[in-house]
Amino acid sequence: MAMNSSVNEFILFGLTQDPRKQKAIFGVFLMFYLATLLGNFLIVVTIKRSRTLGSPMYFFLFYLSFADACFSTTTAPRLIVDAISQQKTISYNECMTQVFSAHFFGCMEIFVLILMALDRYVAICKPLRYTTIMNRHVCSVLVILGWVGSCIHSSAQIVLALRLPFCGPNVIDHYFCDLQPLLKLACMDTYVINLLVVTNSGAICMVSFIILLISYVIILYSLRNYSAEGRRKALSTCTSHFIVVVLFFGPCIFIYTRPATTFPVDKVVAVFYTIGTPLLNPLIYTLRNAEVKIAMKMLWCSKV
């Protein structure tokens, strides 16, 4: 428990207090969560077992799907259970664990998206050196660096959270523990800590988004030298990546790059990047990718 804190548990307000809406939330988000787990599980297993999906792009997609499943698991089960339970309490330690894990897997998703953009940049802009530059050893080191970077980011977040004293009230106006709603409950001046949160999470979101935008602009510019068929295939892949980037970074930038103010719409926006993006990623990457669809059919039809 934090120093100078008299609160040992919090009450999560959730998305709504309306009993009928809560039942709908339980049903809808349970289906969303199960679909997320199933979709990402299919991609992870298909890439792991398939001999045709051995390129760096699918190596990174494997880790994106893994991060998606874990990221959704940090928030969705609590939202689903709280929708039908009378006691919507979460202990202080569980709350801090949720802050750490949500930021860890969310940051990992950001780093993997950057690695996927880097992979497409090398494949399209330096095709002759692609296999040399993006070999398996380099890809593994890049993913490890992503894990380390995520751990540093989430550790910084949890250090800030642990410094907050709570004297009551203990009702978090959100469906999961995050620093912004916790800052509202802290019985201290949180201006400096909020500044650090914006500097940390906000900067990661903005800088990563700008890097990704620049990389895709360079990729699109490089495609002018390709044949019509080559452009079509490259554009299809890059469009999938870009859709995922916009869906994830739009809500993140809205939440983490502003002063210590919260809006009622924040919870709905948070649903997009904590539950919506992990659900949509498998659909985007399978429906728009012929290689993944063929590999899935071959693998799962042979199993059946």
Automatic annotation (TrEMBL):
Keyword Protease: no
Domain G-protein coupled receptors family 1 profile: 39-285
Keywords: Cell membrane, G-protein coupled receptor, Membrane, Olfaction, Receptor, Sensory transduction, Transducer, Transmembrane, Transmembrane helix
Localization per Swiss-Prot or TrEMBL: Cell membrane; Membrane
Gene3D superfamilies from the UniProt entry: Rhodopsin 7-helix transmembrane proteins (1.20.1070.10)
Pfam family, one: 7tm_4
PROSITE patterns xref list: G_PROTEIN_RECEP_F1_1 (PS00237), G_PROTEIN_RECEP_F1_2 (PS50262)
Membrane topology field: Multi-pass membrane protein
Gene Ontology cellular component list: plasma membrane
Membrane-crossing segments per the record: 24-45, 57-80, 100-118, 138-160, 191-222, 234-256, 268-287
GO molecular function: G protein-coupled receptor activity; olfactory receptor activity
Annotated function: Putative odorant or sperm cell receptor.
Family stated for the protein in its record: Belongs to the G-protein coupled receptor 1 family.
Protein name per the record: Olfactory receptor
UniProt source species: Canis lupus dingo
